[in-house]
Design a protein that fits this description.
single chain; 349 residues; alpha/beta
Length: 349
């Protein structure tokens, strides 16, 4: 059987170019495997080769999506691969979106199989799992070994145009495609067996998982803003200069709470953003653009609001897991209820 020819797409970090400071790295084609491609090459053995690697910065791709896609597709086309491998992106949001977008475009333009991998809460997963095969991974690169173990054999099957089984068999995310097949046991028996396992507290797998929507009832409107104490909360990453609590630029594991007693203006000398998901230049010039302390101080002086709470809460939404964000929100809300805050202005980027 002929050796399968693979092209691998990765970002600037896994391409060993650099971190966020190199996120504007333009697409570059290199021969052979690079970074995680070495692990895939080893797992694939003699059955396939990583013929080339395309490296592109996350910011560059997401800020130039159409032109970047065209440039990258032409690089891939020139390599004449049997399949494209992208990532895995784990929980890096911009990287996941780039992997999904490249895979979808290559599938349409070049007509070859594609495969990527990412954490299930990565925004790229929701955007592209119905269009391309995506293998669920852990939320960081510590899960590389397990990701390669699942992705490599599936990549070979795709490249050889072999029959792909159900998501539970092959290890990819359910993509909404349903096919008819015959079960060995009738539905009534399977249903009773499932119910008995559930009642006994044993693990079971439903055959028709229902979506889990988190519904939050809106709070009642503030009756009189002129008497309301307002607090500021942001996912835009505004922190005191130097980021004293080292809040991560992506996939934040914490939030910060900072005192702004007597502060009427967030200057470039005193505040900055820790966020890695948007151009920080304008936020670093004037952090009030993300956290409007100056305007709320004016409103308080004019009597439009009762007052501004002397602490603000901040974290980074870029790639942060929903589970983590929910935990942050519960803790922050408890603090603000204890402080008798009437309303919150929640800002993003």
């Amino acid at each position: 059987m002929a050796q399968v020819r693979i092209v691998h797409y990765i970002n600037q970090f896994f391409g060993q170019i650099g971190g966020e400071e190199k996120a504007d790295f333009r697409p570059e084609l290199r021969e052979g495997p690079v970074g995680p491609g070495l692990a895939f090459a080893q797992a694939l053995g003699d059955e396939a080769e990583i013929a080339a690697t395309v490296i592109c910065g996350d910011s560059y791709f997401n800020e130039n999506i159409e032109s970047a896609k065209k440039e990258i597709i032409e690089m891939i086309r020139g390599c004449k691969p049997d399949a494209l491998l992208a990532g895995p992106a784990f929980n890096a949001g911009r990287y996941g979106v780039a992997c999904g977008a490249i895979c979808e475009a290559v599938k349409k333009e070049l007509g070859i199989p594609v495969l990527t991998g990412m954490y299930e809460e990565n925004p790229g997963a929701d955007m592209y799992k119905s269009a391309v095969y995506i293998v669920p991974t852990k939320n960081n690169a510590a899960g590389m070994r397990s990701a390669v173990k699942t992705m490599a054999p599936l990549l070979l099957k795709l490249a050889r145009h072999e029959k792909i089984g159900a998501s539970a068999q092959e290890g990819y995310m359910p993509n909404g495609i349903r096919v008819n097949f015959f079960e060995e046991e009738r539905g009534s028996k399977r249903a009773v067996d499932m119910l008995l396992r559930k009642m006994a507290g044993k693990p079971f797998t439903t055959e028709f998982p229902m979506p889990d929507f988190d519904r939050v009832e809106p709070a009642p409107a503030v009756k009189d803003l002129s008497k309301a104490r307002i607090a500021l909360v942001t996912s835009g990453g505004i922190v005191p200069k130097g980021n004293p609590d080292h809040i991560e630029s992506s996939s934040a594991s914490k939030y910060g709470c900072y005192d702004i007693t007597g502060v009427t203006d967030l200057t470039s000398e005193t505040f900055e953003t820790a966020h890695g998901g948007y151009d920080p230049v304008y936020a670093n010039e004037d952090a009030d653009r993300v956290l409007p302390v100056d305007v709320l101080r004016e409103f308080a002086a004019e009597g439009k609001i009762g007052g501004l709470y002397e602490k603000f809460y901040t974290t980074v939404g870029n790639g942060t897991a929903v589970k983590s964000a929910k935990k942050f929100a519960e803790e922050i809300a408890a603090d603000l209820r204890h402080a008798n805050i009437d309303a919150i202005v929640l800002t993003s980027t």
